[in-house]
Design goal:
This protein has 473 residues and is an alpha/beta fold. The chain has 11 helices and 42 strands. Its main location: cytoplasm.
Length: 473
């Protein structure tokens, strides 16, 4: 049996009070509608899901790209009218049509698969099956329509909340509007939906029409947290919490220790290997990957970064960076875009690295900034070291070769190279390349012999100008 999927995403979402289309509001690393597409793809067997767009359609199409097909609902005349827009694209292409919503991100693909299975089983028993649908029972109707049944428990109709009588409003079996329709029956009857007093064509009217025609409707109950529709920022926060807990549960069942799930946020796009420990207050985002046996936190944010095996990140921020195995940073460290720590690098508290490579075994003291630099293996970077990489117009590179020792409070005024095994004294301002194995100190930094024979008046003005112009950035 071939299934097609239609996702309704044309509404204005006025209660979100936002310029951004409702279905594009982000939830844990994905736009809201991406969650709906992800679930629908598990059941659409022969073609991508069809998304019905209207308000903000250019942005929606920009976001989803070619992973779905699109049809446009030019006039927003209700859900029945929205599905009708997909008829030219899908009629004759599938045996059954699944209808879901772009603002219902908590609906699982597994639930949709179960609904498809129910439809197939019921259709095998009775060819006059018009639809299989989900129902939910809860005290807060959240604007959902009510399910009307006869004395034998058979579905007779769905009444939208706005049209309910006081008695019908007391019904707690609700319609979340997730349907699997017999495709041939759907396309024949969609154009027959009557216009509602509100001036819209309700997809839910098809249920009463099917019963009147002697067709049957099957139902399947669904958990409350799966059909959490989003109309306001409050609903958005509630859905985010539902999905956040699911993501954390998935990682914990896969062998990740999460000490305090209530304060831990992991986006859906993050991958974490077994035996990782996440301490309280962590936020992992984007395409981040955490290697086995690493300890993250407490209170650390990692964005689009690769963390190797056995690393430690404490009270720190890592963004678009790489930490190879057995690195540690923090507390209060910051790896900015382009930072790459090779194996075994230690970076102390209040350190910052940007667009730089720190080679294996580098030790970087606290209160230091390394930007636009290439640092070779086993270099010691003393506390307070700064690469002055920006002259007000351009960035310049600092190169530090293997086994160099950079004394505390050294300023490396780029472009500059410190040779292998060279040393700088505390407080040195290095404006010229330091040959391998050489000690320099002072302002500007010179080897000891050169400093003894240099008078203040003899200081090269090009060095002082370079010192004045350069800054870390």
């Amino acid at each position: 049996m071939q299934f097609a999927s239609v996702i309704l995403a044309a509404g204005f979402g006025t209660r979100m009070k936002s310029e951004l289309p409702k279905v594009l509001h982000p939830i844990l690393g994905r736009p809201m509608i991406s969650w709906a597409v992800q679930a629908a793809r598990t059941v659409a067997s022969h073609s991508p899901p069809v998304v019905v767009v209207g308000h903000g359609r250019e942005l929606v199409q920009q976001t989803l790209g070619n992973e779905v097909l699109y049809v446009v609902q030019e006039e927003l005349l209700g859900t029945g009218h929205a599905v009708l827009q997909a008829q030219p694209l899908l009629e004759g292409q599938a045996d059954a049509v699944l209808v879901t919503y772009g603002d219902m991100p908590c609906l699982r693909g597994e639930t949709l698969q179960a609904l498809m299975k129910l439809y197939q089983q019921e259709k095998d028993q009775d060819a006059r099956l018009a639809c299989a649908m989900l129902t939910v029972t809860r005290d807060d109707p959240q604007g959902f329509g009510r399910i009307l049944r006869d004395a034998q428990g058979n579905v007779q109709a769905i009444v939208e909340e706005v049209d309910c009588t006081p008695e019908q409003r007391e019904i707690r079996e609700l319609n979340p509007s997730i349907f699997c329709f017999n495709a041939a029956w759907l396309w024949e009857n969609l154009p027959r939906i009557p216009l509602s007093p509100k001036g819209e064509y309700y997809l839910t009217d098809l249920i009463g029409m099917a019963v009147e025609q002697g067709w049957r409707v099957a139902t399947m109950p669904v958990a409350v947290d799966e059909v959490h529709g989003i109309n306001t920022r409050l609903h958005l926060a509630q859905a985010t919490d539902i999905l956040r807990r699911r993501i954390l549960e998935r990682h914990m069942l896969a062998g990740v220790t999460i000490v305090d799930p209530a304060t831990t946020y992991v986006e859906d796009t993050v991958t974490i290997e077994a035996d990782v420990t996440l301490l309280p207050g962590c936020l992992l985002q984007g395409t981040t990957h955490i290697g086995r046996r690493s300890v993250i936190g407490p209170y650390s944010q990692i964005i689009h970064s690769q963390i190797g095996e056995g690393c430690r990140v404490s009270y720190s921020v890592v963004e678009e960076a790489v930490m190879e195995e057995h690195c540690e940073i923090g507390p209060f460290g910051h790896l900015r875009k382009g930072a790459h720590l090779a194996a075994g690098v230690h970076m102390g508290n209040f350190g910052e690295v940007k667009n730089s490579y720190l080679g294996p075994g580098v030790k970087m003291g606290h209160f230091s900034y390394i930007g636009d630099a290439q640092v070779a293996s086993n270099v010691n970077i003393g506390a307070g070291t700064i690469t002055c990489n920006y002259d007000g117009q351009r960035k310049h590179q600092t190169i530090i070769e293997e086994d160099a020792f950079i004394g505390s409070d050294t300023l490396l005024v780029a472009p500059v190279t410190v040779g292998a095994g060279a040393r700088t004294g505390a407080g040195a301002v290095v404006t010229r390349d330091v040959p391998p194995g050489t000690l320099v100190y002072g302002v500007p930094a010179r080897p000891p012999g050169a400093l003894r024979h240099t008078r203040d008046a003899d200081v090269d003005t090009s060095d002082t100008g370079k010192m004045d112009a350069a800054a870390g950035s």
